[in-house]
Amino acid sequence: MYHKPVLKNRRTLLERAEKFISDTYFTDCNLRGRLFGDTRPLESISVFQSEKRISYSEAIQQDFLPCKFGDAFGPTWWTCWFRVVLKIPETWRGKEVHLRWESDGEGMVWRDEQPVQGLTKEGEKTSYILTECLKDSEPHSITLYVELACNSLFGAGQGSMIAAPDPNRKFTLQKADVVVFNRDVRELLTDFELLVDIVKLLGEGEQRGYQALFTANEMVNLCDPTDNSSFASAQSLAQRFFSQRNGESQHVVHAMGHCHIDSAWLWPYEETIRKCARSWVTVIRLMENNPEFVFTCSQAQQFQWVKSWYPGLFSEIKHFVQKGRFIPVGGTWVEMDGNLPSGESMVRQFLQGQSFFKEEFGHYCKEFWLPDTFGYSAQLPQIMKGCGITRFLTQKLSWNLVNTFPHNTFFWEGIDGSQVLTHFPPGNSYEMKGKVEDLINTVKNNKDKGRTNHSAALFGFGDGGGGPTQLMLDRLQRVRDTDGLPKVQMSSPDVLFSELESDSALLCTWVGELFLELHNGTYTTQAKIKLGNRQCEALLHDLEVASCLALCRRESFTYPSCKLQELWRLLLLNQFHDVIPGSCIEMVVEDALEYYDEICTTGSKLLLAACESLVSGSAQDVGSSISVLNTLSWERTEVVSLQGEDTQTKLALVSVPSVGIAPVMETAEPAPLVSITVMVDGNIKMENGLLKVVIDRTGRLMSLLLVQTNREAISEGSLGNQFTLFDDVPLYWDAWDVMDYHLQTRKPVIEVIEPAKVVSSGGLRGSVSFTLRISGKSTITQEIVLDACCPYIKFNTQVDWEEAHKFLKVEFPVQVHSPSATYEIQFGHLQRPTHRNTSWDWARFEVWGHKWADLSEHGFGVALLNNSKYGYSIHQNIMTLSLLRAPKAPDANADMGRHNFTYALMPHTGSFQGASVIQCAYSLNFPLHLCHGVTSESWSAFTISSPSVILETIKQAEKRKNALLVRLYESHGSSVTSILSTSLPVQEAWHCDLLERPDPSVPISSAASGISLTFKPFQIKSLLLIIQ
Ligand SMILES: [Zn+2]
């Protein structure tokens, strides 16, 4: 049957087929050259340019000016609205006709007032189908609008993708015409392309590759590009090849359409709204023509945007959600960073996300979906399970720089023992193209071959949006069961995970965090975003606590539930995986800081109102009477500053009960006050009965003594509080990466501008301040503070930072010997090694933690606390906190300017648990609040009998005005039974999950003094308390 002779020359046959479909060579006579038929110019094209993103209805009322091909538009971030008038000739009856559009930028076609199709060259979408088969009854004269965003899929980086955007970039319209599209040529091209790829990728070792080679070659023989009637025989040859089936044991690839859209990154939030619309409307068009096409889509925030801005499109999406084809996944508000958000923030990501999905689409997501995030907290499995999710999909660990993660499908176990079934698509991408290469990689890279026979393949342009194309669908359709390739089925996460669950006996378990060995600078970059996040997390916590107390104490008080939802959603949005990590452009940083400002301003006002409801009378009525609110679940005795009548700050030592209020009393001063001595050598000694510290003129700790045991915390011959500067030039990902070799460039900061001098001379507070020069323009001014009764020493730090590619840290060499250090994470902590034995150990030279890290040996340890930092490293006995970086891409001004932050050092006897390090770190982050007004006596809303249990959250229950939700967790890593007592009028109580669904299967166990709760290590428990 084949044309003869067929010579044994693989190369010429292969290249012959490649040239037959090349878009570069021989297009005058090859098949590719026949893809388009007759063309007609547009009747007219005109343009209106806008600096702002405006609505369709506003745009079409503007004055449009004539334009021509080759014209340049912009600059960057502007929008061009094109009015396109076209006519389809009647003689094209029966043909498929496209509007062909080639331009820079990202386009959206509007027709009859509706968005109908996204257009981007980068996303391989350059035509809009006007008709699939022209009929006389169809309109032949059509007016369309094309809304063109002056940015590419990946923003407008100057020179490289991640460089800061070029504000002056121009965008060109290269081509727009009406054209006959030869669908049968497209089909045949797809056949050829797949066959050529099979030949190349299966290589010379596989017989199947040769079968593909001879098939493709014979198809060239049979096919005359000028004669469409010759195509059928070629096509049937391809068809025969593709339909030669696999055996039963072949691997199954679950193909799912996907479009990863970063909620902000190299473009601002506002553009993302349009990216969603452009990408998703294109998905809807594909769904109309491809009945099996399934698309997975994450991030409730993006759905919310489309609902608000594109209601027509949203109802089309809803239609396909109901059909199970447009599948919401993930369950979270945004695809958040997996390291930095607090435990409660992570819960709210799910609470806001899942509630949105349930309300809009009728059900919760069953899979957590976070393919592109820079590491995954070991507390996530428990949080997922509490939110109704037992399955997790990601792939980012394939980016590890040092170690290859050993599994693709496995059980992931968190710090409390919760397990979730986890799948990393073995193709190591969330934006495949449905090509042979993707399918082969999915099988080849799979590290659980033989244990499981199913894998996911997510296809569609991503990061900047774009999504799947018809071509990707056509490819996958052809090779559903083709001998030599894995089987392919259009699938859904539910089908995939059900298959994995049904046959999971051989799967391995990974315990602890999924640490990404890359992008470790993201714990530090954009310090103001980190500070904003930490402060706003604390503010919303305090606001909820105060509002709940006010709700129970004052009938007239209205809980600000709508406002709180708004503020939480802003905070959650900024936790997106390119915003809180600091890997975004300057425009995004500005937006993020504005959102934090809004949370602070509105939140503070609401907090003040709640506090006023808790005390009687306003400040005016009762003069200078002041009460203090403690939102944490243990009694606190601390020094607070009272705003005096004059400008002088007055200090007071107050004791406030757990989750309660106390009046500020003019009590007798405590026995051990702070004393300060300037010694003859100029060094300064501060002591408060608990700690004795000696500070040199450079502000470094020469000694830090724990008085009770006379134990020195600073390592012999070393100095604590040593600032150090490192060169910080990564290999590529500037804002993201700090590389191991930066450690070889350490330089201590020792140039004194102002030597240490006493600022507060003792009593309730002693403090010492000094100023150092980091380099030409950068300086550090620090106040070292020791308060009466306080077990830690505080470092209030101000840095003026004007650096390029430098990394500032502070070091504490301590007298502790231990092979591992402890770091706080969400609702708990974990250990990491202090040595570099193996590649897995040294790959963690820069790690993340939350409010504290601790290095302890038996009986003694030192904790390093902070109020806004996340980057740590503890190597041998040196505890280091990462303070500031100075990357130049994608934000050329990242972190330049003034920064204020606080860290603290706390030596302790016994264990960090026994010494209340966890509570101290909370206290540093959740300062006591002053309320102007009288409270007659101390009052406490909640107490917990065990110091290991922390009452993390008190809020009004979602949509239940008469109920409070309280959330507690075991923080020591111990099994414990604890009694929660309350003075609030609680009528009944229920256990519930993190989505606040009551769980009647676990009855409340009442004790005489309250509710008895039994915790396993790091267990999170939520209760609904019904209030009278
Ligand atoms: Zn991303």
What does the model show?
The protein has 1028 residues and is α+β, with helices and mostly antiparallel strands. The strands form ten sheets. A 14-stranded antiparallel sheet has the order 30-29-28-27-26-33-34-35-36-45-42-41-38-39. Helix 14 (527-553) runs antiparallel to helix 15 (561-574). The chain binds zinc ion.
Could you write a compact summary of the structure shown?
With 1028 residues, the chain is α+β, with helices and mostly antiparallel strands. It is 24% helix and 32% strand. It has a 14-stranded antiparallel sheet.
Summary keywords:
binds zinc ion, alpha+beta, single chain, 14-stranded antiparallel β-sheet, 24% helix, 1028 residues
Number of helices: 19
Mean pLDDT: 96
Spell out which ligands are present: zinc ion
Strand elements, count:
55
Beta-strand proportion: 25-35%
Shape: elongated
Going by helix content, strand content and strand pairing, the class is: alpha+beta
Enumerate the strands of the largest sheet in spatial order, edge to edge or round the barrel: 30-29-28-27-26-33-34-35-36-45-42-41-38-39
Radius of gyration: 32 Å
Low-confidence stretches: none
Taking the alpha carbons of the first and last residues, their distance comes to 88 Å
Largest sheet: 14 strands, antiparallel
Give me the secondary-structure topology.
Blueprint: H1 10-20, E1 36-41, E2 44-50, H2 56-59, E3 65-66, E4 72-73, E5 79-87, E6 96-103, E7 106-111, E8 114-119, E9 127-131, E10 141-149, E11 171-181, H3 183-202, H4 207-222, H5 231-242, E12 252-258, H6 269-289, E13 295-298, H7 300-309, H8 311-322, E14 326-329, H9 343-361, E15 367-369, H10 380-386, E16 391-393, E17 409-413, E18 419-423, H11 436-444, E19 454-459, H12 470-478, E20 487-490, H13 493-502, E21 508-511, H14 527-553, H15 561-574, H16 586-614, H17 619-622, E22 626-630, E23 636-643, E24 649-656, E25 660-663, E26 674-678, E27 684-687, E28 691-695, E29 701-706, E30 711-712, E31 722-727, E32 747-748, E33 751-763, E34 765-773, E35 779-787, E36 793-801, E37 806-813, E38 820-825, E39 828-833, H18 839-842, E40 847-848, E41 852-857, E42 860-866, E43 871-875, E44 878-885, E45 897-909, H19 917-925, E46 929-932, E47 939-940, E48 942-944, E49 949-956, E50 963-970, E51 976-982, E52 986-992, E53 1005-1007, E54 1010-1015, E55 1020-1027
Parallel strand pairs: 12-13, 12-19, 12-20, 13-14, 15-16, 16-18, 17-21
Antiparallel strand pairs: 1-11, 2-3, 2-5, 4-11, 5-10, 6-9, 6-11, 7-8, 7-10, 17-18, 22-25, 22-46, 23-24, 25-47, 26-27, 26-33, 27-28, 28-29, 29-30, 31-32, 31-37, 33-34, 34-35, 35-36, 36-45, 37-44, 38-39, 38-41, 40-43, 41-42, 42-45, 43-44, 48-51, 49-50, 50-55, 51-54, 52-55, 53-54
Helix pairs in contact: 1-4, 3-4, 3-5, 3-12, 4-5, 6-7, 6-8, 7-8, 9-15, 14-15, 14-16, 15-16
The structure holds zinc ion (ZN).
